[in-house]
Amino acid sequence: MVFNWFRRQFNDQQEKKEEQKSQSSASPEEVEATEEEETTASEPTPVEATKEEETTANEPTPVEATEEEETTTSEPTPTGTPAWLQQSGGLEKLKESAIDDTPEPEPVTETPTSEETVTTQDEETTWSAQVLANQGRTPEEISEEEISWLKQLRRGLGKTRRNFLNQLKATVGKGPLNEEAVMEIEALLLQADVGIEATDYIVETLQAKMREEALPLESAIAYLKEIVREILERPFQEKNTPITFAPEQDKLNIWLITGVNGAGKTTTIGKLAHLGQKSDYTCLIAAADTFRAAAVEQVKAWGDRANTEVVANPGKNTDPAAVVYDAISKAQSKGTELLLVDTAGRLQNKKNLMEELGKIRKVIDKKAPDANIESLLVIDASLGQNGLRQAEAFTEVARLSGVVLTKLDGSSKGGVALAISKQLNLPIRFIGAGEGIEDLRPFSSYEFAEALLSE
Known about the structure:
single chain; alpha/beta; Four Helix Bundle (Hemerythrin (Met), subunit A); Rossmann fold; 19 helices; 8 strands; 57% helix; globular; receptor
């Protein structure tokens, strides 16, 4: 049976989460037990370890052996040291100069060893399994793909997380949260492009909580996670739209993919097509970006990778709306469930291109009035507030219903997700954290908050 990523359940109600944390406590233990068995299997046996220790103890490294020989030859016992050498201190001076002139050893500790790499991977696996278990998943329900994806997401938000947590620890220490620490949090949030409105809300909520009780660092971070989830989930509640975002089966779903050039729009379409195929939907792509050179060839290449047919007009500078019309006709005749429409990348100040986007929407409304229509804006997370301004302009013309946040692989701008949710009241539907075809998944506010704020 195909694993349906689209219909994977995310973000249970908060009350359910708390119950599941206690009820599913056995699940994480089973996962951890499995990991401990794997770790035990990979670690050397006590006999082997003893042999290695004896070998290490009895066989000095070449450097240590050389140093021992030099010590033996150049440092005789104090009773045998000539008086002139003791008085002049020449040996000590030679030692000092030799140490000073010797280049510093390469920082071997900065390059992870194989053991450290395995340890890091084990920690990431344990963290991923715990996050899934906290959402009510049992070990039998957890797939390797989910574990791999959460690792990728955590790494993608790593820069933002480390900057935030390290500076917060330096400010707060081990004591309770105070006003100075809250001001530091405000600065850190703004640096991460959380935006003024979301930052103000977080700071005010923290201050209100502080009036009720003292918040140690761990409790403060846990409470911050709750606030982050609340902000990210509010657009779903206010728009009365389900958090689980999936095409309706046995019906035509048309997703209009918009955004500026360079945001990852065409790449996102290829990844969505791949995700749809893996989730057992019939998919089709409309290459309606007819203005940019090689755009049609690019989307065709992604269509080949995703094993998805692409509808395109062979001519140059053809009418994008005509391509969409042809694609809808083909989708209707073939019983396609998901039609992904690639549109021209445009800047929000290009009036003629924005009007063309409106024309495409009119064709969709007229040609497929019964279809489920979604308009998704692709935003490059590394753009920060510039991406937010793009979203504001597209909202008016494209009647946006959601956002796809891309390029969260190493960006320090992960906080823009909160700005989008708070200022534009738009739900984030998908999130990308890598260049591979597998590196795009449905958005989960719980997983995002954990990846953003967990150590």
